[in-house]
């Protein structure tokens, strides 16, 4: 039975790997998509004596105290790769990209502050009659003070200009707002994906606005400000951050994951055959 469990664990791990690769390939053209990465962990079970666990001994189920048994492999939770994405020029003035480690801040459902690398923004009508720079889903882009980038009806939104530091000019008029560039420490560990390119910071993880203003706790200030700004990067107008999925690596990973699944399926079949032969001997 241990052999069967080992094979099943490996099959589940390889299926997780396949699912992650498939998701990467499906989003190879999704702006701001951070490729998923899978790692694996050994699984060990400590079979302790009844006295050590405070339980009752079971006849035929006792193993030596402290004996560690290998039970195969498990896939660790997939992490996202937020390394610098290639910037592609589109010429569309509402397309924005961050050349650096930073993220755009978005007001998601219920006002939840989300982060994204995708800058394929558009002007979206708001309930107050004004227009806000927003994601394709209609979620407003936030400035350095946590407010949406809004303009009044009739404003020539076709004349949008965004400076590298995030300063916004529309129709030749400076709005007095800067699009926030946010920074999170170790985003692969501290961000949870809500969809293909929108992320939420895990509870207790500070989101820092590095290009001025204030947005709750954890904003960069003082001597650390300049270094944080340099790391977070600048905004490039008329560009989009492309998916950082490596097609060649993804195809190799798919072959390896499928082979891993097939080999463990064969091992499971062999174990079943041996178990059946053992049962026949006993009968």
Notes on the protein architecture:
The structure is a single chain. By secondary structure, the chain is of the alpha+beta class. The chain folds into 2 domains: about 1-50 and about 65-80 and about 245-280, no CATH class; about 85-240, no CATH class. The protein has 5 helices and 20 strands. The strands form 7 sheets. A 6-stranded antiparallel β-sheet has the order 16-17-8-7-15-18. Strands 9-10-11 form a 3-stranded antiparallel β-sheet, with no helix packed on it. It has a 3-stranded antiparallel β-sheet with strand order 12-13-14, with no helix packed on it. Helix 1 runs antiparallel to helix 5.
Labels describing this entry:
2 domains; single chain; 5 helices; elongated; 283 residues; alpha+beta
Main sheet: strand order: 16-17-8-7-15-18
Instruction: Please give the count of helices.
Output: 5
Shape: elongated
Number of domains: 2
Topology:
Blueprint: H1 2-26, E1 36-37, E2 40-47, H2 50-53, E3 67-75, E4 79-80, E5 87-89, E6 96-99, E7 103-107, E8 113-116, E9 122-125, E10 131-134, E11 150-151, E12 160-162, E13 167-170, E14 173-178, E15 181-183, H3 187-190, E16 191-193, E17 198-201, E18 208-209, H4 224-232, E19 234-237, E20 239-241, H5 247-282
Antiparallel strand pairs: 1-4, 2-3, 5-20, 6-19, 7-8, 7-15, 8-17, 9-10, 10-11, 12-13, 13-14, 15-18, 16-17
Offer a quick outline of the entry.
With 283 residues, the protein is of the alpha+beta class.
